[in-house]
Amino acid sequence: MEQELSELLFNAVNEQGYLFSEACTDLLSKRKTGWTVIVDEYPVSSNDEDTRIDIVLHTESGGAPQLYAIVECKRADPKYVYWLFGTPKLHLDYAKCWCLGLEYKGGSSDSLPRIRVRQTLKHFDIMTYSAKWRLEVKSRVSNKSEKRFSTPQNIENAFVQVIKGIEGFAREQLKQRNKNAVPSEVLFIPVVVTTAELYVAAYEPKDIDLRSGRIDKAKIWFGQGNGSAEEVPWIQVDYAAGENVVPQPIHEHDLSTYPRDLQKYKMRSILVANSKNIEAFFSRLTYV
Questions:
Q1: In Å, how far are 4, 240, 267 from 70, measured between CA atoms?
Q2: Cis peptide bond upstream of 65, omega within 30
Q3: Over the stretch 112-127, which tens digit does the pLDDT of each residue have?
Q4: Angle at 244 between CA 240 and CA 246, to 5 degrees
Q5: Residues 6-57: pLDDT tens digits?
Q6: Could you identify which of 73, 194, 200, 235 might form a hypothetical disulfide with 54, taking C-beta atoms 3.0 to 4.6 angstroms apart as the criterion?
Q7: Residue 256, phi then psi, degrees to nearest 5
Q8: Could you give phi then psi for residue 260, rounded to 5 degrees?
């Protein structure tokens, strides 16, 4: 009976992702990456919902702005689960991220200085691919059968979680910093760390068959085009979300009715890193 109980408890420990988050926190606390672990399991509220941030990291950029990384840890069985990201053409470039930030606005004769929320496009000194869509691909092979299936939902869940965390953290920082409006600029960077290996599917949109919505195997590649799939250490995803996830209204002085102009208020650039590469990832994640 005691052996069965021990086995039950042991299995329970490994069923959830608490250990993975703790391992990431421990590694980032001990390694010199230029980032400092400030807190883990940090509770915030976003859009009237309570949530928790797995890890909050902070770094100084050598001036303005201050940078916070809001990290969501997502465990998946690396033997059977892969994260696949799609992009028309394969282009490696420096990260250009839509970031939520706080900006100091000096007061005038009839107003007090205050800090406001701002959405802005910032450049970072880390090379990455930029993806358009994402899928979690699962494969379980047995002696009798092979079953494959894919779904975007688990990645979507991780993205929504980290976005809600960053919104809640930013709003709390806004409130606290406005109590003593000292000139400063702060940026918040959403990061998802996963045990799943990361791959990129590259293709030309013109090669997609409009009759079936499919593409020929010869017209898509999962690396540099040599026929074999090549794992990538990290990737950037520009994630668009509505106000239920991103409760940031369109700026009061923006009078445009053109959707492309308004899209920037709904964008968040999420950086996704494989867990075995997080030391290198944060070492390279510096502000330009």
A1: 39, 18, 16
A2: yes
A3: 678 888 888 899 999 9
A4: 45
A5: 888 888 888 777 899 999 999 999 999 999 999 999 999 977 789 999 999 9
A6: 73
A7: -70, 145
A8: -65, -35
Which pair of structure tokens corresponds to residue 100? 């939520």
The token pair that represents 51 in the structure block:
């949530």
E strands present in 16-169:
36-46, 49-60, 66-74, 81-88, 93-105, 114-131, 133-141, 146-151
Alpha-carbon dihedral 208, 211, 214, 218, rounded to 10 degrees: -60
Number of residues written out for the chain: 288
Structural tokens at position 104: 């100091």
Rounded to 5 degrees, φ, ψ at 226 are -95, 10
Q: Would you say 159 and 239 are in contact if contact means Cβ atoms under 8 Å apart?
A: yes
Return the closest-CA partner of residue 178 out of 247, 250, 103: 103
